Amino acid sequence: MKKIATAILIAAAASAASADGLKSLESFMKGTQTGKADFTQTVTSPPKEGQTARTKQSSGSFEFQRPGRFKFVYKKPFEQTIVADGQTLWLYDVDLNQVTQRSQSQALGSTPAALLASAPDLSALKAEFTLEAAPDADGLQWVLASPKAKDGQLKSVRVGFAGEQLAALDILDSFGQRSLIRFTGMQANAALPASSFQFKPPAGADVVKQ
Q1: N or C: lower Cβ tally within 10 Å for the chain?
Q2: Average of pLDDT values for 187-205?
C-alpha cells in the first residue's frame, strides 16, 4: 500500500511540475512582447555507423518583437545574421558575402527558434503546433511543441522556461539533427528600435531569392 501511495504522490508531483511549463508558456506569450539575450547553440548531427556524434558550437545575440520580427546575430565561429522584418526572412553569410531572401510566411518551419517570436498569441501558436507538457529537466520547465504540418523539416521543439523567462530551445529536425539553444541575460520587454529588424543587403553582396 505504501508503494502505491508513493507512486501516486510521485505521479501527482510530476504532473504538477509538467503543468508549470504550459503555465510558463502562457505567461510568456501574454506578458512578453519584446526581448533580447545572448545565446549559445550546440548542433549535434546523428552519428554515422561506427562513429561518434559530432557537435558544433556557435554563439551570438538574439532580439525579437512579436508578432513576426526577430534577429539572430551569430558572432562565433562564423559571422552570420538572420533577420525577419515581418514580411521577409533575410540570411546574410559574411564570409560568402551572400544574402538569401525568402518569404517569411513560408520559412517559419525552417526557423523554429523564432516560433515564439512570430506567433502573436498562444492561440496562434496552437494553430501551428500541438503543445504538451514535458517533464522538468536541467532546472527548467519544458513544453513540447510538435508541428501539425507533417511535411516540413521540423520534427519537434522543446521550449524551456526559468519561471516566465525563455531559457532554452531544444530542436529536432526530420534528419535527426538536434540543435540546443540556451539563452542568457534575457531582458524581457526591452525597448528595441525599429531599425533592429530592418535589413539592407550590403553593397556588392550576392542576393539569392528563394
Answers
A1: N
A2: 92
Query: Which pLDDT score, from 0 to 100, does residue 155 have?
Result: 87
> What's the fold here for domain 20-47+56-189?
outer membrane lipoprotein receptor (LolB), chain A (2.50.20)
- Report the chain's C-alpha Rg in angstroms: 19
**Could you tell me the residue ranges of all domains in the chain?**
20-47+56-189
What per-residue confidence (pLDDT) applies to 66?
A: 86
Residue 101's contacts (CB-CB under 8 Å, 6 or more residues apart) are: 88, 89, 90, 207, 208, 209, 210
